Amino acid sequence: MATLFENYFGANSTGASGSHGKSSKFNLETLCDFSHLNPRVQKHLKNVYTCLMVATLCATIGIFMSLNGWMNYPRLAVLGSIITSVWLFSTEFNSQNQIKCFGLFATTAFCTGVYLNPLIDLAINIDPQILMTAFLLTTCVFVCFTLSALWTEKRTYLYLGGLLGSGTSILLVLSLMSLFGRSELLFNINLYLGLALACGYILYDTQLIVARAQNGETNYVRHALMLFIDMVDLFVRILIILIKNSQKKEKKSNNR
Fold this sequence. Notes:
Elements: H1 2-8, H2 28-31, H3 39-67, H4 74-90, H5 98-115, H6 117-126, H7 128-151, H8 160-180, H9 184-214, H10 220-255
Helix pairs in contact: 3-5, 3-9, 3-10, 4-5, 5-10, 6-7, 6-10, 7-9, 7-10, 8-9, 9-10
């Protein structure tokens, strides 16, 4: 434990008189040390997260255009995102199809931003700060869980696959049940269980990407799409939770 502490923080040096020397300092270089991953995997991860950043930008453009009424067709966007994502997963990734795969991925992200417009518009109408708060929380949670998965040398999070699969099945059953009768309890279970599963999938998919990269898989676009889906799912659920809490506060203030 002392060794781990000294790796991340500068150790306190104590003189003969018992007074402390230099104070503990946070070691950022140690936090960014992924030397346990081979250079090929590190290069692959750089490509994956670069694609993920571009996808986030494309989704933001889709949201902006939809909010301004230029591409306000959420149902058509859902269909478009399904078609392009299925097309991407069925396309062989090689040097010839690399640009095509990246274009399909960017289109999927753009369509995702368009069909998220109704939810984002609702959040802005209730409180514009909700949107920024949801984005910051999503970024913090995603980064923390991603780093946790990357720092763990043993691929222990891959064992979450069965648990996540069972949880997804339960989530699907709850969603079907809610179609036959609206229940706030079912909705809350679905919402918070989905939030926990989204966090679990970030851990699982990150280590799955590392394992596949170590085995020689180079399709960084497909891997970026996996993480993008996880991030969007996390963002949507955090945003819904913030909207619900804001509406509850507004009702309480109106009842006073």
